[in-house]
């Protein structure tokens, strides 16, 4: 049992809005043991920024962790050379050059097609009608699993996300995750002969070409799907909502006083789609008086770090002109998100400018409230809007 100060949370309230409890922890117990999560949590940005790099202490290798058990042993759950070898094998599929030369054109094509169909309607839930299909269609291309329906890409991604955050052991959640991973394995099997005959820049193609073993290829594609669908989807809908509820910020972009990438970076700080990253303690360690023992579980709370008052002035405010250099929305250490370049391009270069250019008079539909949820992964659950049809 951790000797860190104990801090109790109400789990449903924490899921609905973790920020008040995290702010209290940052002030009173920045490293705290939360019994309801069975973990010692880090809540201050600078502690997370330095300690996440200590892979000799806070290891990503978690043989019995939920991600390994449910999705296979992927590069996110490996450290050192094992991690870097698999990361480098995937890099050609998600490098800045590949994003610029290949993916951004395909991303724009998907956005244009979806908006062509959507523009005539005049109202929609943008989470389901735009953010979800765009993110999924883009991810189908990037992973190489173009044989999937976009609905399955989203559902299977969400099932895995729910599964690896299932710290309460809900059996129904676990069963949905197993069904999702089986579906992904079947899709991979179908596409292997296709990409072998016609190699491309997709993750499946470049990993096969690298000679990576099939077990790791499957696990790393599932990793790409678990993060590559939900996070861009949530950033697209969330950043849209943020601009619609902060019209003065939207005006800055339209007047050329800020850029779409500023919107993306500030939203990712303000409501980080990835709120937490787990670690396993590898050896005894004392940090700020807290004793860590081997096999203890630690959560680095990125969502809390990005609202740390010591690093961001008025951190609960959405402000696209703020200095976001200290944001760790994509991580801080060697496990910095490999898909960051693709995500930025999808949201800031394609989704947001296309959406606001095409849907004239876009505004919230006040008939239905916007709902947000999640503490390990957080995002909008709906985004009812209306605009001038045609």
Describe this protein with a few key phrases.
390 residues, alpha+beta, Cytochrome p450, five-stranded mixed β-sheet, three-stranded antiparallel β-sheet, 16 helices
Q: Would you kindly provide a written description of the structure presented here, covering whatever features stand out?
A:
By secondary structure, this protein is of the alpha+beta class. It has one domain (11-386): Cytochrome p450 (Orthogonal Bundle). The protein is 53% helix and 9% strand. The protein is built from 16 helices and 12 strands. The chain has a 5-stranded mixed β-sheet. Strands 4-12-9 form a 3-stranded antiparallel β-sheet. GO terms for molecular function: heme binding; iron ion binding; monooxygenase activity; oxidoreductase activity, acting on paired donors, with incorporation or reduction of molecular oxygen. InterPro entries: Cyt_P450, Cyt_P450_B, Cyt_P450_CS, Cyt_P450_sf. Keywords: Heme, Iron, Metal-binding, Monooxygenase, Oxidoreductase.
